[in-house]
Write a structure and sequence with these properties.
alpha+beta
Length: about 140
């Protein structure tokens, strides 16, 4: 399964290869959230549809993102040398990211959402080789 929403993770997304466990983790207020960011391409011929989907995200998808301990989730678009790219960022407040992503991946409405968003995206070569849509990024700097 391949995440996209990511508000859509939807991680999206960006969260391909998740298993279908249904275990949820609890939120821990004592530690700061973990930050995650991903990048992928956006197919020009699908860009308008992708923007439209994210202008009106499905309520059930947004609910699942929050249930899975995700906050401050955003997706940004950038044109670089005539190619469109998406950058996704989120903060995770739970204690078991893999379990929460598996829970999200098992959700039928999220799966339907990804069937709409995944075809709009164009994975970077390393992500495509790993059968993912979203490529991981490495945080170089953070100021709180």
């Amino acid at each position: 399964m391949q995440p996209t929403l990511l508000p859509s993770l939807l991680l999206a997304a960006f969260l391909a290869g998740c298993s279908t466990m249904t275990t949820s983790s609890t939120t821990t207020a004592s530690r700061p959230p973990q930050r995650f960011a991903w990048v992928t391409g956006l197919k020009p011929e699908k860009a308008a549809y992708y923007r439209q989907l994210h202008a009106n995200p499905w309520p059930g998808v947004n609910r699942m993102i929050k249930v899975c301990n995700i906050q401050n989730f955003s997706i940004h678009e950038r044109d670089i040398d005539g190619k469109l790219y998406l950058f996704a960022y989120l903060e995770y407040t739970g204690t078991d990211f893999a379990a929460d992503m598996a829970r999200m991946a098992a959700d039928p409405e999220t799966q339907r959402w990804w069937k709409e968003t995944d075809p709009c995206q164009s994975p970077l070569p390393d992500a495509a080789a790993a059968k993912k849509i979203w490529a991981d990024t490495k945080e170089l700097y953070f100021l709180q």
